Amino acid sequence: MSILSYREAIRSTLIEEMDRDPTVILLGEEIGLYQGTFRMTADLLERYGPRRVVDTPTSEIGFVGAAIGMAMLGLRPVVEMMTWNFSLVAFDQIVNNAAKVRYFSGGQVDIPLVIRGPNGAGVQLSAQHSQSFEALYAHIPGLRVVAPATPAEAKGLLRTAIRGSDPVIFLEHAALYGSKGEVPDGEFAVPFGAADIVRSGRDVTIVAYSRMLGAALEAAAHLAGEGIEAEVINLRTLRPLDRSTIVESVGRTHRAVVVQEQWRPFGAAAEIAATITEGAFDALDAPVERVTGADVPMPYARNLELLALPDAGDIVRAVARTLYREIPTPHERSSGGQSDA
Fold this sequence. Notes:
single chain; 2 domains; alpha/beta; about 35% helix; Rossmann fold; five-stranded mixed β-sheet; globular; seven-stranded mixed β-sheet
């Protein structure tokens, strides 16, 4: 095991895969000379040259379209989105070409393409740079949608994505880039569609992914102090979604809380809640609870931004509703108060 940051895990995997396979190439805005907005491609231009680390024009629809063509012809392009908010400019290429070429070709043409970059809220990046688009892309057949929560997952899932034959939407979280953790050495890979039960429990199932895993684990630790054992599931991928692990867990705990950072209506949590209702209805002792971001454009002011994002206290309150009891949140316990307000 090595101790790596989330950022280092991604960068080291890019290097390992580029060393292993000369068909792996990188494309994106300012990834060469500037070395990437988040330094994900630091020194890679010098290492591999401009034919494999391609600085593109500021035209997402152009360079994503070029990458799709490269993938059709046998290369394995990894496209960096400076932020997933900019992917909207390339939405037509992603949805109508990358996701559908195999179908249109009757299975004759694969698209081994990875599009990666930061998704979700940053710190005071405001409404146009703080959006979570996992539900948008997970709605599209033909795409794989990945949301790693830890450095180990970032490495293992990225390796699987690069070596696969499908277009992969690889949603990193900018707020996680500096987080550190143990990462297995060598040929470590994480399969798609296999959720991870990161904490076992008997009283309630908490389902989370990406940055919200940390909030879920914080809430579970607090609940343990109140005599409540929460089982925490880290989804890792949203398409494919590991429905069986979710349903089996709720069958044991009889209660469920689903956590997402994105807006509430039509989100990933709604699909997961429907999966639980369809697969474990008779096991439920309470309605499935959803913990989500506020249904507003992200404010710039830091105090309002924090109010718009879900946290461990919101998860604890949701668990309390499934148990039909009052449970103090971490803030209330530390302050001796009765409310987070």
